[in-house]
Fold:
Amino acid sequence: MAHDLRFALRMILSHRWFSAAVVATLALGIGLNTMVFTLIYAVLYKPVPVPGGARLVAIRNRNLSQSDNSMRVSYPDFRDYRAQNSTLEALEGASDEEGVLSEHGNPPQAYQMEHASSGIFESLHTRPILGRGFIPSDDKAGAEPVLLIGYGIWRDRYNSSPSVIGRQVRVNEKPATIIGVMPKGFRFPTNVDMWMPLVPTPDLEKRTNRPLQVFGMLKPGTTVAQAGVDLNGIAHRLATQYPDTNKDIGVSVETFQQRYNGGNIRLIFLLMLAAVGFVLLIACANVANMMLSRALGRQREISIRTALGASRWRVIRQLLLESVLLSTLGGLLGLSLAALGVHWFDLSTQNVGKPYWIQFKMDYAVFGYFAVLCILSGLLFGTAPALRTSRVNLNEVMKEGVRSVGKHRGGRLSGLLVIFQFALTLVLLTGAGVFVHSLIQTLSVNQSVPSDQIMTARIDLPEDRYKDTDAKQHFYDQLLLSLRAIPGVTHVALGSDLPGLGAASSDIEIEHSAVDPAGHRPSVSFVVQSPGYFDAINLPLLLGRDFNETDGTANHKSAILTHECADHFWPNQSAIGKRFRFYDDKNKPGDWITVIGVSANIVQQLDERNPKPLLFVPFRQEGWGGMALIVRSSSNPTSAVRAAVQNLDQNLPLRDVYMLPQAIEHQQWYLHLFSKLFSGFALIALLMASVGIYAVIAQATSSRTQEIGVRIALGANARNIVMLVMTRGLWQIIAGLSLGIAAALPAMRIMASLPISVSPSDPIVFIIVASLLALVGLIACWLPARKAAALDPVKAIRYE
Structure:
């Protein structure tokens, strides 16, 4: 083996340019795969970085009678699950909310906060670096409110001062005492900044109130499935014991990664792995063709080795060792490329709400994958050439010559590899094209909205200071007046959700229609807004009128429907004057609401493939405490808007401050980022495929030099020679495109489940991709054909 290794190294060094081309090709394929595996392992499989993190699970209730059935857990159910289970060594609950931290001498600031059961940090084997954690008495009714802060707050707000312990602060206008600082980087469960005990309240004790995220630590040796069976057994007993609140309530147990990185994120990452897998297969096919062409020059060497007694297995082993060594060298270069790619991806996802426990770093699992990939790649591209090259017939070599023998043996396999490359490239290019085209279509649906002129921010009014609807309305009225007075501001409005960024939903009942039972009623999406909203986002009214200051008050319940919504519920008739009513969370109907207008259509939920009918209701009608500001201005008015809010309420923070395009990009970041990645992978595949067909046609043309010389001498013109050389390539291109289209159609159906409007058979993309690939293939065939047509027949006939 040592002798074979030294010989393989000598062969690689003696053919430096050939080896460099192979190494560069493999570096791209192996590097991209290593990069993507690093990302996927970090997002989907790497345990949370706490002791026992691999055993951490997330637990949710599910409604067995509904398809969209995931829900959080009530506090009494959580308490029963904790007391009765036999598969978890710990079970803890938490309820998330925004916490506004304020105190004398420091401006108020909003942070993500969790109300957590007292054992949560102990279950994660994580202690504060300063002070103490929660103790059981902290989450008892009547306990003094205490607060644990994250490392970031301690560093940025309190300058890492040890005297922060025991400090009296206010959280959401209520007093609390800071008792500890959590370690740097700890933000469990998802980017939390501070924690308070989960203290039971009368409202929390209701089984119909389900606010809790529940986390468990499996006992050693226990599986997720076993925990699911255990907790579903408890849920079944609770359904029997409390039929009014727990009927049809089951339990879903998932790994922590499945809970927070499932769905669309998981699908896109797996699609990305498939894409780079295609790139590696194309690279291996390319290298296999290169190895086959090189084998033509090694027939004499292999024949001599065979004649001297080398067995076929010994020859195959030698050739495979060379292939694996080349693959390893390419992999080492690719590892550097992968490290750069991972670093770029990490930088691109720093400020997009990525869970704190996702760390894009190469570790032993990545290096193990890399090692296996290098070996398998070497075997994949080296096996067929090794088997071909090692099957030597000494009589043929003596009679026909090396070049003739090699031509017969390698031509057909080379052609098949080119067809394979083109088919995979078409699938990859089509996937990238459909993804990018669909993303562009999705993001451009609301072109009438002047997004670049709209500054947005969110305000949440604390319930203890804004106790009723009148107090909230008074604040909003004052704020709108202040904002309209800012120089350069042309339009100001409030909305519960921004255009393209979601909406609330509710079941409704249409007047004079059959009353459907719960679960079968029609459902709508709706946006709560102030007068001036339509003008601010430039959405025209088609019928009726806009909201005024009396809409939404007693006896003036009203709504404006989009054109699609009006046609959905009242087809072929005017919706103006028609009435409907909402159902609340307790399944009770509200007041009748009159339709006063119909607007143009707008896509309110970009990440919904089949959004519900959309309508608008006045903010006086709902009295929401949390609203988004929509400020349309000729310049960025952020500072003036912040000052206007502080003048009205100095303890009220402004959060999520963006221009509207940035707000949309922040929510849809993964689609933007992955579209760039898919496009990059597809272009690399296109380059490899074009180089591959060029190399094969050039090699085939070189092997037919004497034949071409004879044809020219007998009167063949340049056109005849060009067509002769290109015919083989044209058939390979046609076969590759046909096979690729057949494979691309089912592949696109997988992408149809993404949260964008993906057409599984987008004709525009298919035509563009097929035309581009055919053009590149034709150019790759034409270059060696043109060279062949310019041959000197005398020199060509003498060519060896």
Summary: Residues 312 and 630 are 76 Å apart (CA to CA). Confidence is low (pLDDT under 50) at residues 400-410. The first helix runs from residue 2 to 14. The two ends are 35 Å apart (CA to CA).
